[in-house]
């Protein structure tokens, strides 16, 4: 068998060793903090374990219990609400900002920084400040709303109806900049010559947006879509700081529920089973998107 | 060169060798900076009296303490002696060493502790932690605000109606928005109100078989709080109070004229720019006085490698010596060892008599291993709907009654 292997030269072997050496730090960290925990979680999801007792094998018991758990059903609904609203709004807004900031307007560097700042701001700190802004009595948002004549002021995080929109607003605010920067990079990759040629042929600005910019930007859009969906399925810190899943579980999302079961109720098996379902859902969404991309993503 | 290294080695050995003769135990506790001096004093006094023992401190703020402790205990590690609340949850998982035999063997004066506190620190009839304090709530009020509004200060005869009346008079608004709430309440104190109205949350706070929060007396109490928030609009919704920095922040900044909270706030409010005082809680409509028996205690790790040294330290820490130091500290804890004259004498906190009187009517809050889940999954979400005014107490609690009872029957 060794004979059938290509004989590496001394230099090549040294290079191979060097490559492994360079990869080692990241591989070791990946193994310890990602691969091993993920594999353990898979096995834990078939057990009953509260961190202290003997681990008992319960087969599919946790999964069956999840299927009959009405709070888990609510949590899935909440998560779907969050993903379905925040992802499209965020992508459209990010694209709009990128288009405007790509036109060479005055102070565009300044605005790019302004939009990107929330991305590099600590989520916890930002969420705390937003919680203040949303305070229905002392907060600035309701003060502004009452100035423009709104009388029935929303109770925001205190109300089952407005708590999720409040979290969605903060989430969009925070992630907009990242998607915008990706779109900006994508826009700058579209050659000016294509636009010039189309303009010569008499295409209006609107036509060029639909038939040139959007199709040529589609690989970026696809990437932004995939990472936004994955990211929003994992919303956690905002919920933890702003509402703690309340009121009445109105903002309880998948990752928060996993955290609650694991670290408040000490049901590691149940939490792991929910985590496995989250993994399957995200995987399914991503696979579907890869299948669908052939229809709308154009790689120039 | 070689000589120099040799010298270093000898010096290092010299440093190490006395430590080898010592027994080391680790001690974990939480606390904000103003709460730490008594812990440090106890540790240094104990080490001075026992040169053969070295105590290794593992301090964390409240917010991160239990995350770390849980992880350590799960790994079979963790401090030998640690500060703890929610004892049944830990005892049921086998994380704590039972203390009864140790107490008997060393005739530790356990009968000098408040009985309901001992109950709080027990699980299935066995004691797992020695209570440090009972943290009864009391009514803190801004005297300046009372004077300005021409409202008489709270007194021992106050009932719910008087509290509500004062809260309404003390609430100020500007352009439809509240600039000062009459009253702020702690979100986790609601069971006190149920008790003051003659109701109960469960038939037995430690071994419940029936959920009683849907009974009229309890529902009425919950609705009373809900009405203060939503109908009279004189108290903030709990979630919003927390977002505004918590009840202590509301009181300190003059945004709440009264607050019902625990004794540790005596220190927090020491430097506020107005006059304030502390009064006993109002009685229920029929005059029932009731409070919570809360507080924290000290336990020994079930996996301690040095249980004898841990028990010796625990006796000092939670016994008369440690209790006196805690009771006499600036951020005083209302002692759980009220049967000991030295400890009682050391407790000189301002309004100490108010807190001791509240401790006397302390009752055990629900505390059993599954209470955390039942509360998070059913009771709290139902109460949320009362606190934010989206539902009446009767509907919200009525809606979860059967589910909670079904869970209790499991």
User: Can you identify the CATH superfamily of chain A?
Assistant: MetI-like
SSE series of chain A:
HEEHHHHHHHHHHH
Counting DSSP H or I runs of 4 or more residues, the number of helices of chain B is: 19
Name the CATH class of chain A. Mainly Alpha
What fraction of residues of chain A sit in β-strands?
under 5%
Terminal Cα separation of chain A, in Å?
43 Å
Shape of chain A: globular
Number of helices of chain A: 12
User: Mind describing the biggest β-sheet of chain B?
Assistant: 5 strands, mixed
Strand order across the biggest sheet of chain A? 1-2
The structural class of chain B is alpha/beta
Q: Which residues of chain B sit in consecutive blocks of at least 5 with pLDDT less than 50?
A: 13-21
Estimate the strand proportion of chain B: 5-15%
Question: Can you identify the CATH class of the largest domain in chain B?
Answer: Alpha Beta
Largest sheet of chain A: 2 strands, antiparallel
- CATH level 3 topology of the largest domain in chain B: D-Maltodextrin-Binding Protein, domain 2
